[in-house]
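Blinded run. Sample ID left blank on purpose so nobody reads anything into the name before looking at the predicted structure. Input follows.
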Amino acid sequence: MHSVYRTANRGLPELVIQDEKKTPAEQEKVRGNVKGAKLIGGPTVKDLVAISVYDTKSVNFMSMCAESI
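Blinded prediction complete.
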């Protein structure tokens, strides 16, 4: 199972959340930035991969199917 997530109240790990940039100049500086984490041994899900990619806003993704980043 995998899905795209919003950052508010959805269980996305804080370490992959990227701050939203307000101006086009700030957005251009961080466009293409990627943050990712493999979460191992959680209480409800054994292994989970969480990824955030910044375009004009961050796009957040979590997957139970991926084994690595």
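Unblinding after everyone has recorded impressions. The radius of gyration is 13 Å.
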